Amino acid sequence: MKEQIEQLRETFLAEIQTVGNVQELESLRVKYLGRRGQLQGFFKQLGQVDPKERPGIGKLLNELKSLFETSIAERASQFRRTETREKIDLTLPGRKPPLARKHPLTQVLEEIKSIFLSLGFSIADGPEVETDYYNFEALNIPRWHPARDMQDTLYITEDVLLRTHTSPVQIRVMESQPPPVRIIAPGRVYRRDTPDASHSPFFHQVEGLCVDKGVSFADLKAVIAEFARRMFGEDIQVRFRPSFFPFTEPSLEYDFNCVFCRGKGCRVCKQTGWMEISGAGMVDPNVFTAVGYDPEVYSGYAFGMGVDRIAMLKFAIDDIRLFFENDLRFLSQF
Ligand code: DAH
Is the CB of 71 under 6 A from ligand 1? Predict the structure, then answer.
């Protein structure tokens, strides 16, 4: 019987080598391990074996059983591995890693910068956390002035605040150099505003300042109009309205055509047909005095513009809040 058992071991080991797939492996398992299989046959005969030899034979049979089981399991896992490998379709196109791109505001800001650089302006910078002096006082807005009401902000201390506009950079630049000056200052600004389609508690401005001998209102108008044409095309209309800012005299506000309704009036332009871009004017003599420029010798113009509004016009976006929600479905369109 020992020989027969040895025989069975050898045929099994030879046979399992020839098994080519899962189905064949399963019939092999039934043949050797099944209830009516070969091994079971031997177990059944065990009763007739000489009791002295019985334990030894039993041990052999048990060893054989576990050999069958482990060999079959190993073969099965081999088949499983090759099967998954075959399931990978190498002809499928690869998955593209998403490419980063510039935020629409960054794109517009870069365009604004390059237009002004080509007009002879250079780029200046100032802090977003500003002092009361630079944000208000030096710009001819004393503490009691009602113009402060429109520019409420977050105060860090009595005298330190989040800047409400980029105009303080005018003062910082003039303090640091003698005339002539021709700069733009792009950056983020903060205001106590309730968010809606056209307001956000933070937004972006580009400040402009040009100071020299003999600078006039005509220069200001020409630069703004030229900017509008380069940004939006020859047919853009620009409107100048008289206004008031403490740091300019005289002051104006300028608007571009609303691109959504082409001037008819809609939600975005609040039914006016115009998009308010920002303010401008001739630098007030008090501002020159604050930085030590002689207002009798020098004159200059200044302007601010809302980058977010320009971007909205440029890309036909009707809600400023979309810029700040970090929704890739929105951002990836630009
Ligand atoms: N700083 C003003 C604002 O935020 C905009 C502005 C008006 C800037 C007139 C100027 C200017 O430089 O001359 O509303």
Answer: no
Distance of CA 263 to the CA centre of its chain: 32
Model pTM greater than 0.70?
yes
SS3 287: helix
Q: Structural domain of residue 221, as residue ranges?
A: 104-331
167 and 80 both lie in a single domain: no
CA 267 to ligand 1 center in whole angstroms: 25
Residue 243 Cα to ligand 1 midpoint, Å, equals 11
> Tell me, what DSSP letter sits at residue 52?
T
186/303 same-domain check: yes
- What per-residue confidence (pLDDT) applies to 109? 97
pLDDT tens digits, 18-36: 888 888 888 888 888 888 8
Asked if 304 and 280 count as a contact pair (C-beta separation under 8 A), the reply is yes
41 and 168 in a common domain: no
Compute the distance from residue 266 Cα to the ligand 1 centre, in Å.
25
